[in-house]
Amino acid sequence: MIKDMLTWKDVIKFANKGNLAPDKRVEKTEEEWRSLLTQEQFRVTRNAGTEAAHSGALCTKYDAGKYNCVCCGTPLFDSTIKFSSGTGWPSFSQPIKENAIKYIKDSSFGMVRVEVQCNTCDAHQGHVFPDGPEPSGLRYCVNSAAMVLQEEESED
Prior knowledge:
Layout: H1 8-17, H2 30-36, H3 39-46, E1 65-69, E2 75-78, E3 82-83, E4 91-92, E5 101-106, E6 113-118, E7 124-129, E8 139-142, E9 147-151
Antiparallel strand pairs: 1-2, 1-9, 3-4, 4-8, 5-6, 6-7, 7-8
């Protein structure tokens, strides 16, 4: 987990002044991504698409585990920081590591938002907003199609 909790001020700083370096990089051609992903996963992650609200398989799933990037497998979020935002998309209050997410200023659709991408492979995940729960106040609003839940093994 992140030692120091990220805040909206940190998000804006990264979006305006540059992001932290990822632990590694994964780069593929468009053809390679298409061969690895479903049509919907490709549309969301490689073309910055958005799935319909309340349609994603991970929206109401709260099993213990890590939410990894569907493209490269990098852990992005942990189930312990997932919360029900009522927005229709999986929501998290922090990334799993400070350098797991890349922040991009997004001025599309006549508004200014902050897009979040996997910092390892640049896969679009969703957006982050300053209306999440305390103590961070952040709400990472992420597409289910952009993630895969790696569930923790139960100790039976």
